[in-house]
Amino acid sequence: DLILQGAQNIVVPILQTKRSGVSRRKQLLKSSTINSHNGAEFCWLTQEDVIRFLLGSIGLFTPLPACSIDALDIISSDVLAVDYYSPASSAVEAISKSLAQQTSVAVVDSDGEFVGEISPFTLACCDETVAAAIATLSAGDLMAYIDCGGPPEDLVRL
Known about the structure:
Elements lengths: L8 E6 L7 H10 L1 E5 L2 E7 H10 L1 H4 L7 H4 L8 E3 L8 H10 L3 E4 L5 E5 L1 H5 L4 H8 L2 H10 L4 H4 L2
Parallel strand pairs: 4-5
Antiparallel strand pairs: 1-3, 2-3, 5-6
Keywords: CBS domain, Repeat
Protein name: CBS domain-containing protein CBSX5-like
InterPro entries: AMPK_gamma/SDS23_families
């Protein structure tokens, strides 16, 4: 917690126990500095020491690095998508689902190629005029509306 709050070094007292021996002390000398003060020994740990320890011990905390992405099932093949030219109002259900799944709705062309996305989080940052955009624009134009902060230029001229 101290390092996360910005501490550059942590001073840790080294307690003498029956099991602590020379090998443990040599191990500490490799990665950090041991100092003595009034007969007590202290170890200075840097942020790098903590990161090095965590990275070296990651296999003990979790078996995740040994698993494939497929085995972890972290990429969903159930993609929420809407056609570029379909009415934006038809995307409302997909947007609701994407909010619950913490993902976005893909906007695809007639060949199924990815064009862009409609993010429910970006949509939530829009003002009330987005309601009119959903009611009147296509999904592709809504995507442009959200990304540009207003209607696309070619629609304004109409």
